[in-house]
Amino acid sequence: METPQLLGRLLLKFDADAAAVPEDLSAAARAPDGGVWVASDEHGVLHRLSPEEPRVFSHQQRHDVAARLGVKGGEEMDIEALDIQDGHLWLVGSHSAVRKKPKGKRVEKDLARLATVEHQPARFMLARLPLPATEEQGGPEKASRRGAAKLEPSGSGGSTLVELLRSDEHLGPFLVPAGKGAPPGALAIPSKDNGLDIEGLAVDGDRVFLGLRGPVLRGWAVLLEMEVVDTGGGFLEPKRRKKNGWYRKHFLDLDGLGIRELSRYGDDLLILAGPTLPLDGTIRLYRLRGGLRLTEDSLHRQAPGDLEPLFDVPRTEKTDHAEGLSLFSYFEQDDSVLIVYDSPSPQRRYGPCGVLADVFRLF
Q1: CB count, 10 Å around CB of 48?
Q2: In 10 A of CB 203, how many CB atoms?
Q3: CA geometry: angle at 345 spanning 216 and 343, to 5°?
Q4: Which of 271, 149, 267, 252 is nearest to 199 (CA)?
Q5: Positive or negative: CA dihedral 46, 5, 334, 35
Q6: How confident is the model at residue 142 (pLDDT cuts 50, 70, 90)?
Q7: Which tens digits make up the pLDDT trace of 159-201?
Q8: Is residue 10 classed as helix, strand or coil in its secondary structure?
Q9: Which of 128, 40, 44 is nearest to 355 (CA)?
């Protein structure tokens, strides 16, 4: 495994209102025109930043995707990953339940909070949005553009994806429905208890790869792959294969870590991995060679030419949690990866409205 080489940093300059600068960046995607899209995981807003000068991105444009996708006001989307493919911006929510945190005031109330698991339907979102007109590249790219669409809810009103996975021999036990009276699709096991937690997304045509931070099974991380089709009316649905069912599963030996983000690199997949629990620990970048060419369920141990660890991302205790990953061009085409961070340290802030992202050399 290589020693990480930091090529430099990008300055992401947001609006003049310092209080509105997103400090919980969870995802990043490089746009075809050279701009950068980022997401803040607790809000249904995406930010598009354009190159102002070398290594500086500004001219912030806010896009309220929650309203565009019909999310009710006040619901948390928890956007965890972005990808751009064929003139469209794709996003995915965590698909997770949340256990309340103790506040440290009264034991009785804190115990009650620890017993409370919340369900927010907006977190169960997989959606595709056409890029704004400024992103159009013309030709086939422009011709392939379709309207906004999201994964259609199940017949019971819950998540179609969760309903499919509930009968899965590996993942089903972690998708136990919440108790009596809970909303459709509610989960009993929260994400931070090794429950379902989607944090990685990569799109190749109509194939969608979803990286799970949890559950991790005996140290094996799970990568889901499914094909989706546009059914019209603003909805997508999984496509059933004759032999392989609704989805494929790929199990990865990531040293016990869960998947935090995915990025395409030719036919390979770059995988940012980290702890499943909310703790400080190793953040490592891997390369799954031929990840986009997989045709069957698979299991990948670390080996040259298959699943390869690349480097550990430097970390700081309690701050600078690496969350978002995107292929980037720093000196040459696709020579590096861009990483954005949740909970940035004071040293990562620049002026009242700037946040610094890191660019690491790939090979």
Answers
A1: 22
A2: 21
A3: 40
A4: 271
A5: positive
A6: very low
A7: 999 999 999 999 999 999 988 778 888 899 999 899 999 999 9
A8: strand
A9: 40
Mean pLDDT across 323-330? 95
Assigned token pair, 98: 């949340």
Name the more confident of 43 and 283: 283
pLDDT above 60 (res 50): yes
User: Residue 170: what pLDDT?
Assistant: 97
Cα–Cα dist 33/309, whole Å: 30
The hierarchical CATH code for the domain 6-361 is 2.115.10
* pTM across the whole model: 0.93
Structure tokens at 20: 């509105």
Hey, what are 243's tokens? 């032999």
Q: What is the DSSP letter of 34?
A: S
| Residue ranges in the chain assigned as alpha helix (H) | 65-68, 107-114, 139-143, 160-165
Q: What pLDDT is stored for residue 41 in this prediction? A: 66
Name the more confident of 41 and 316: 316
> What is the DSSP annotation of 290-330?
TGGG--S-EEE-B-TTSEEEEEEPP-BTTB-EEEEEEEE-S
Q: How far is Cα 322 from Cα 274, in angstroms, rounded to an integer?
A: 9
Quick one: tokens of 15? 């609006």
pLDDT at res. 344: 86
Pairing mode of beta strands 354-361, 336-342? antiparallel
- Cα torsion 216, 221, 227, 233: sign: positive
CA distance 38 to 185: 28
- Interatomic CA distance for residues 10 and 54, integer angstroms: 9
Query: What are the boundaries of each domain within the chain?
Result: 6-361
